[in-house]
Amino acid sequence: MREIVASILIVLGTTLMFLASLGILRMPDVFMRLSATAKATTLGVAFTMAGAAVFLNEIGVSSRSAAIVLFICLTTPVAGHMIARAAYNSGAPLWKGTMVDELRGRYDRRHHRLESHPAAPTLPPAESGEAVPPEFPGNSEDAPSHSGPA
Q1: For 79-127, what is each residue's pLDDT tens digit?
Q2: pLDDT digits over 20-46, tens only?
Q3: What pTM was estimated for this model as a whole?
Q4: From CA 79, how far away is CA 129, in angstroms rounded?
Q5: What does 70-117 look like in DSSP terms, one character per residue?
Q6: Most buried residue, 40, 67, 122, 133, by CB count within 10 Å?
Q7: Residue 2 near residue 55 (C-beta atoms within 8 A)
Q8: C-alpha distances in angstroms, 58 versus 53, 110, 122?
Q9: Cα dist from 67 to 3, 15, 44, 49, 74, whole Å
């Protein structure tokens, strides 16, 4: 029974990693490719390591498998973010079907600074006639700024 469960986990893991490799070939831009490969590969490695731990049934293998999965889960999002940021900074083209580029016009590529969103619009007074509290961000000029630590 243990061999069957391990085989299912390993086949599922390798299938996910294969789908990640297809994502590299099929996705239209670097950002979608990165998203597809990071998610599918992380799950693929997790299932493969779980299959190895179930099959070998040793505490040493199980602890190493858990450490590998933890390492992959901690480093993949950081690496993906850094690669995507480098791609955006170098001017990698977005897919023509991309609906929103939230960084367009807000990111200074020369100084590597991101401008914050413009101030939130002032909300209308509540229906009871009371004004919205000024501590709500963007409701008044004397509201505290959220641009950095105080």
Answers
A1: 999 998 888 888 888 888 888 877 777 777 777 777 776 655 555 555 5
A2: 999 899 999 999 999 888 989 999 999
A3: 0.67
A4: 50
A5: HHHHHHHHHHHHHHHHHHHHTTPPPPTT----TTTTTEETTTTEEPPP
A6: 40
A7: yes
A8: 7, 53, 61
A9: 22, 22, 15, 10, 10
